[in-house]
Write a structure and sequence with these properties.
Catalyzes the specific phosphorylation of the 3-hydroxyl group of shikimic acid using ATP as a cosubstrate. The chain has helices at about 15-25, 30-40, 45-50, 55-65, 85-90, 105-110, 125-145, 155-165, and strands at about 5-10, 30, 75, 95-100, 145-150. With about 170 residues, the chain is α/β, with parallel strands linked by helices. It has a five-stranded parallel sheet, with helices on both faces. Helix 3 crosses helix 4 (about 55-65). Bound molecules: adenosine-5'-diphosphate (ADP), shikimate-3-phosphate and magnesium ion. Magnesium ion binds near residues 15 and 75.
Length: about 170
């Protein structure tokens, strides 16, 4: 197994499922957002605020290149597919999984998630949250080998489905 890379919109469960999947598959778990926070010694909202989104995107691209070929479960941030070079990197990977759900469901999950603050999903950005979802949808599809709908499924069920897809 060369590893699995998870992509999808904010709230689709990339970080949660990535962690569970890594335990199931006995592969290291790497969450790109956490790697950026460690590199910068700042949280993502702090990086957005102090250095700007463009700086965050550069760090994200650099770390994607670093980890894409590592045998691990790699959870990306929702915006990784916006950059064309990043999409090319993702296409080199044989097991990129796109976690899908309607943006209204994802918004609900994010609003209940007290652990992570997402600068692009703050109360004042709700309209752009749905617009961004539509803008990005094709890029997720184009970048992934498989899609898994995460609506009304437990983490275990989603892990089962991913493992089944990449093994068959
Ligand atoms: N299948 C699921 N069903 C219900 N809640 C979920 C599911 N997957 C993730 N969540 C919850 O949704 C929120 C966002 O999950 P997270 O893994 O941080 O998503 P992402 O990394 O894609 O932004 C968290 O509070 C998490 O517990
Ligand atoms: O979609 C995006 O542009 C972002 C998604 C976030 O990750 P999650 O998708 O894990 O929430 C994080 O990388 C940052 O807040 C930007
Ligand atoms: Mg995440």
């Amino acid at each position: 197994m060369n590893g699995i890379c998870l992509i999808g919109y904010m709230g689709s469960g990339k970080s949660t499922i990535g962690k569970a999947l890594s335990a199931r598959l006995e592969l290291p778990f790497i969450d790109l957002d956490h790697e950026i926070e460690k590199e910068e010694n700042q949280t993502i909202p702090e990086i957005f605020e102090k250095k700007g989104e463009a700086y965050f995107r550069e760090a994200e691209s650099w770390l994607l290149k670093k980890y894409i070929a590592v045998p691990c479960v790699l959870s990306t941030g929702g915006g990784v597919i916006v950059d064309e070079h990043n999409r090319k990197e993702l296409l080199k990977h044989e097991s990129v999984i796109y976690l899908t759900a309607d943006s209204s469901i994802l918004l609900e999950r994010i609003q209940q998630d007290t652990r992570t603050t997402r600068p692009l999903a703050m109360e004042e950005n709700i309209d752009s949250f749905h617009r961004l979802f539509l803008e990005r949808a094709d890029f997720y599809e184009l970048s992934a080998a498989y899609q898994v709908d995460v609506t009304d499924k437990s983490i275990e069920e989603i892990c089962d489905e991913i493992i089944h897809k990449v093994s068959s």
